[in-house]
């Protein structure tokens, strides 16, 4: 076994993870390959215009690229050169055939497995990093080892990083999880994979399990987090109806050490590439094993999340005298959360579409996500995009804060008020602005759960 590492898939998971692995293992050569030549070129760009925005990422890439970190489209060469192969290709929700809308689309994973098999020149350890349904590793092992001249050992090493804090999450993980076959060969492969992380992660934080536990853990962990968000959002509706304040309720619930304070922020609902996909996967799995009540339970998490965006539009409707047609609404924030340009499953996208159905004139602004917003909403007329928040707010009837960018509370809200039509409404769906100050300026203010 040599110490070289390749990751197939240079996306949100593969890029940052390999950059940190390279930084912390200067003695290992780390290669990241992708079929998308444009993406690889961006990773290699001389001015570090990387294909994804992630705080701190550029510094890690500057430190390692060209030394022991390499981005390439040469899958064959990389597979031949490296004995440890991570797979971080995309596994979106399947949009066709059996399991459409719920199961994962594994075509990229399978294509990758076939490539690995075709190019392998000796025994290899294959490590899944993409979120995959339980038992995928077994299926992949079957594809790889069927009539194979070399032995492939498949491990599951799910990634728990969150976007926006990826570099820190990778440098100081709560835990690293490595699942593998519990036979001699599997345990040896787990030990190899452990060495990569042990370069900087304390060994007691590297947890090992069998493959299926590792695969299921990733789905379960994300489902638990998503469920917390839906739970607090369900309480938020009740707060609005009764005059309670959801932030106060969350603060006190979170003071119970058994519950803890994190992931209790009510808002426009969760977005991102993982939560919805993973919960849907869990639902599909439960149904496949005839666990219908469990499937329904997890479906409720998604239903609640979608309801949250519908509620935002209903409340705007009510506050704006039941007519939204031809009125201008500025959405502040299109990324699914702050500190990322990622717009996959973003609540802003859904709110924008619901408002477009009402013939609203939309103005969208975001510090990092405008290129993705333009692409996502390309089919809609009546949408304008602005780098400048003040331009976006000009002549608007309402500003809806959808993403909790740290810059938003620091804006000159007096100026925004002067630029807007009267009466001027701010719907702060992230509860990140100073409500009293806005009211003192003259705004009508709406929040989630207040
Ligand atoms: C998530 C998991 O945190 C991570 O472990 C996993 O590997 C991938 O999925 P990510 O989607 O990047 O990471 O972001 P996260 O910070 O978890 O936020 C997810 C969504 O929930 C965002 O839209 C966020 O705004 C929302 N959220 C989060 C809330 O609405 N309230 C909260 O209290 C926390
Ligand atoms: P994730 O969030 O899981 O990292 P991304 O979509 O950001 O997902 O990245 C996945 C990457 O995997 C994409 O850049 C895509 O081009 C790449 N990819 C998909 N299939 C293959 C393949 N067979 N070989 C190499 N790269 C692939």
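Q: What amino acid sequence fits the structure above?
A:
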């Amino acid at each position: 076994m040599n110490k070289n590492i390749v990751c197939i898939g240079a996306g949100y998971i593969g890029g940052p993870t390999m950059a940190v692995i390279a930084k912390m293992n200067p003695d290992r050569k780390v290669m990241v390959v992708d079929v998308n030549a444009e993406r690889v070129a961006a990773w290699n760009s001389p001015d570090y215009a990387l294909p994804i925005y992630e705080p701190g990422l550029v510094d890690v890439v500057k430190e390692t690229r060209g030394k022991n970190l390499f981005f390439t489209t040469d899958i064959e060469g990389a597979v031949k050169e490296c004995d440890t192969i991570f797979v971080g290709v995309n596994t979106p929700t399947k949009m066709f055939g059996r399991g459409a809308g719920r199961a994962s689309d594994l075509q990229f994973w399978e294509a990758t497995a076939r490539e690995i098999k075709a190019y392998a020149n000796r025994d290899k350890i294959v490590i899944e990093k993409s979120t995959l349904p339980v038992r995928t590793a077994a299926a992949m092992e079957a594809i790889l080892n069927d009539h194979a001249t070399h032995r492939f050992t498949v491990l599951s090493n799910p990634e728990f990083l969150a976007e926006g804090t990826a570099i820190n999450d990778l440098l100081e993980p709560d835990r690293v999880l490595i699942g593998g076959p519990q036979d001699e060969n599997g345990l040896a492969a787990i030990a190899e994979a452990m060495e990569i992380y042990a370069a900087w992660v304390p060994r007691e934080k590297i947890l090992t399990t069998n493959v299926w536990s590792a695969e299921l853990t990733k789905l379960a962990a994300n489902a638990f987090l998503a469920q917390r968000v839906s739970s607090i959002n369900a309480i938020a509706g009740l707060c609005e109806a009764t005059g309670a304040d959801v932030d106060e309720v969350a603060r006190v619930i979170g003071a119970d050490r058994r519950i803890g304070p994190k992931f209790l922020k009510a808002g426009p609902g969760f977005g991102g590439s993982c939560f919805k996909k993973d919960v849907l996967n869990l639902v599909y799995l439960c149904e496949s094993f005839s666990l219908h009540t469990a499937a329904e339970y997890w479906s409720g998490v998604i239903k609640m999340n979608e309801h949250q965006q519908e509620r935002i539009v209903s409340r705007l409707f009510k506050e704006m005298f039941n007519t939204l047609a031809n009125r201008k609404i500025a959405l502040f924030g299109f990324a699914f959360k702050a500190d990322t340009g990622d717009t996959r499953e973003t609540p802003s996208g859904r709110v924008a579409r619901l408002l477009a159905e009402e013939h609203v004139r939309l103005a969208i602004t975001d510090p990092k996500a405008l290129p993705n917003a333009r692409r996502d909403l390309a089919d809609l007329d009546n949408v304008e995009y602005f780098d400048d928040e003040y331009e976006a707010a000009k002549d608007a009837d309402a500003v809806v804060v959808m993403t909790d960018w740290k810059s938003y509370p620091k804006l000159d809200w007096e100026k925004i008020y002067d630029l807007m039509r009267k009466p001027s409404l701010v719907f702060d769906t992230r509860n990140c602005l100073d409500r009293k100050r806005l009211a003192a300026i003259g705004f009508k203010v709406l929040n989630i759960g207040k």
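Q: And what stands out in the fold?
A: Residues 211-242 form the longest helix (32 residues).
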